């Protein structure tokens, strides 16, 4: 496509590339930028996804690796707050995966801008989902195992002044991720009612359940699989998918320790070093 060609939204490919580069520089050099909805008038989700995709392409060219996908805006209350009627998604980049050793993970606080943490469920997909109208039941059948997950959400947008297009373009506000051990037994649990508690520096702070993610985490993953497929990107065997927050986010700073406790799973802790 020629550099100055115009996307279906009316935004040129050159503009898409420029905004992706702006976000990439903010990520690499650790500074915030004005909301794209304000500075550039980017309002529609389709354009924002084009920016997100171009940014991922930039990172892949430098050696980044995709390990899966993340789902955001799975809470009906948050959707109403942002004036949208569906979730959004982003890409999990391997460079921000912080492996847990004996249930404990560490992340360097200095690489983040304005981080928050949230507790989620992670799905390990064992079969490529590439057919029309994928259902939650088919998601569960294709899931090899599940795990407790702590997602670090972070925003390159100044003071989290985000609208839908801002967070989509900004890779759904991805910051990082750590996971507990994979559990095949969780596949047999009622994921709607599975409970979680997140403690902050030893104090239980937020409480949630699987139903917070679109009523059932597998519903959220089915939405993702169908949304990706509409863009010609099937959810792949081997992908990790985090289902969306099961409770409110908690701001984080250097020295903080978060512990996620989920029914039937060992505790998972994350320390900001």
From TrEMBL:
Q: Mind naming one GO cellular-component term on file for this protein?
A: cytoplasm
Question: What EC numbers are recorded for this enzyme?
Answer: 4.1.1.77
Report domain Fumarylacetoacetase-like C-terminal positions: 113-269
Tell me the keywords, alphabetical order.
Lyase
- UniProt-listed Pfam families: FAA_hydrolase
> This protein's superkingdom?
Bacteria
User: Record's Gene3D superfamilies?
Assistant: Fumarylacetoacetase-like, C-terminal domain
Q: What name has this protein been given in UniProt?
A: 4-oxalocrotonate decarboxylase
Q: What is the lineage of its organism?
A: Bacteria, Bacillati, Chloroflexota, Chloroflexia, Chloroflexales
